[in-house]
Amino acid sequence: xxxxxxxxxxxxxxxxxxxxxxxxxxxxxxxxxxxxxxxxxxxxxxxxxxxxxxxxxxxxxxxxxxxxxxxxxxxxxxxxxxxxxxxxxxxxxxxxxxxxxxxxxxxxxxxxxxxxxxxxxxxxxxxxxxxxxxxxxxxxxxxxxxxxxxxxxxxxxxxxxxxxxxxxxxxxxxxxxxxxxxxxxxxxxxxxxxxxxxxxxxxxxxxxxxxxxxxxxxxxxxxxxxxxxxxxxxxxxxxxxxxxxxxxxxxxxxxxxxxxxxxxxxxxxxxxxxxxxxxxxxxxxxxxxxxxxxxxxxxxxxxxxxxxxxxxxxxxxxxxxxxxxxxxxxxxxxxxxxxxxxxxxxxxxxxxxxxxxxxxxxxxxxxxxxxxxxxxxxxxxxxxxxxxxxxxxxxxxxxxxxxxxxxxxxxxxxxxxxxxxxxxxxxxxxxxxxxxxxxxxxxxxxxxxxxxxxxxxxxxxxxxxxxxxxxxxxxxxxxxxxxxxx
Length: 486
Known about the structure:
Layout: E1 2-11, E2 16-32, E3 39-43, E4 47-52, E5 62-63, E6 89-108, E7 117-123, E8 130-133, E9 137-141, E10 146-164, E11 174-183, E12 188-207, E13 210-221, E14 230-243, E15 247-260, E16 267-281, E17 284-297, E18 300-314, E19 320-333, E20 338-352, E21 357-370, E22 377-389, E23 394-404, E24 408-419, E25 424-435, E26 440-453, E27 456-466, E28 474-484
Antiparallel strand pairs: 1-2, 2-12, 3-11, 4-5, 4-6, 6-10, 6-11, 7-8, 7-10, 9-10, 12-13, 13-14, 14-15, 15-16, 16-17, 17-18, 18-19, 19-20, 20-21, 21-22, 22-23, 23-24, 24-25, 25-26, 26-27, 27-28
């Protein structure tokens, strides 16, 4: 691969700033399958996607540079942190067109906890998501620093996994996402692909409080790993205004095209966003956001979506944070003649109750009404968690999440960490998922780390995952190794 980047070109006395990037990657791969074997083969990812969203079945994921660039070592920018008790991390991919998917791999910048839970979802439009697997088979491979999430084959253009549960590592950054399909027959094929990607931004600072930007992007993927050649190009216009030290406005318009030379449907997309933030107090922010999106496939109107949201985020007293949001959305599927209206109500509370105790709680209610259906779908989620430092060297953590949807699900996660000596750290985790109809999954693990130096350590990890009642299997794993950084 080759990458060229030019940033910081200034003109008009520094009021105009120009950034440009160009990247070309050539991939040559030979796949061979022995007769009768089944194995997973990586499929090309058009874009890596991400969003922090507690409503996984509704909402758009945003493109993240570096999430699907083949670099499994370098964390993405902006970062995606899945450490500690951070939930609702939606990590996904745009495959360009519908593909049959068997597994998703999520790479991290360091060894991560084996008790983290992931749910799997698929979508045709990056707006309405269908749950594929709430308890897929999950394993963390410490030799590759990746979560391997395997599920029954399903087909969609967009796929994502949503993180939940405690991670016994406080900070873990995502570096890459891979999507895999299952190849069931004897094959041997060599594939070549050369990707070109270029983008440019021209920013203008009209005044200290007002600036605008124009973004241009082009991407070309010749045939090879994909079924046909693709060309994608887009432009975006955005403006930011801040006045009276209280009001902040952001407006953006995007127009994007995707063209296929062979198999695949040409697509055109227009979207607009307006975001208003009001900060009447240093401890309070009020927000109002509106979005609209229109998608045309082969010059026919296919989908239309819009939403408006209002909320606040504040600290009424020291050590206490309170946030709430109300969102109203509408999604139209013109080919199917379906319209879905959604209301979402969300509230969060977190704070340090005592010097050694930090607690958090959250509530979410989502109401969805689809034309042609006689019932209102209601999804409710209640979450509570706490971190307690028992002594200077021992920390306890626990969380519970109750989801009332088509099926009920209660997830519990517990963890303990003990700095036995300045060089020896011990840890243990346990996760329990109780589903309807008596289905359960249980996972327990233990780790021991010996620090040889500030950058090097020896480690031992034990994991046992039991998916038998959910239709899977029971596995026990042991890992030992050496880690070092430079």
